[in-house]
Amino acid sequence: MTKTFTFAILHFSIAFTVAYVLTGSVLIGGMMALIEPAINTVGFYFHEKAWKRFEARQANATARSGIHHHHVLAG
After folding, report:
1. Which positions fall inside the DUF2061 domain (predicted)?
2. Average pLDDT rounded to a whole number, residues 45-57
3. Is residue 25 within 8 Å of 18, Cβ to Cβ?
């Protein structure tokens, strides 16, 4: 959870800095630091749903074809 929290702080900080540098406005920088990550989170949710459907289709296609791939996870 600490890693997630520190990443959120990093994300907010980057969003604020980019918006502030582009506009010179603390208000707009602050708004962007809140709005952009919120929208990005919603987008990520739908991306994950679509990706899981894609992976399921790939797994079904592989199972139907009789081809088996072995995946090694790098740790």
Report:
1. 1-52
2. 94
3. no
Find the mean pLDDT for residues 16-44.
93
How would you classify residue 66: left for phi > 0, otherwise alpha for psi between -120 and 50, otherwise beta? Answer: left
Report how far residue 49's alpha carbon sits from residue 11's, in angstroms, rounded to the nearest whole number.
Answer: 22
What's the confidence (pLDDT) of residue 29? 95
User: In the prediction, which pLDDT does 70 show?
Assistant: 60
Where do the domains of the chain lie? 2-65
Kindly state the tokens that stand for 55: 């992976």
Neighbours of 36 (CB within 10 A): 17
This prediction's pTM: 0.57
Burial of 15 (0-12, 13-18, 19+ CB in 10 A): buried
Structure tokens of 70?
């072995």
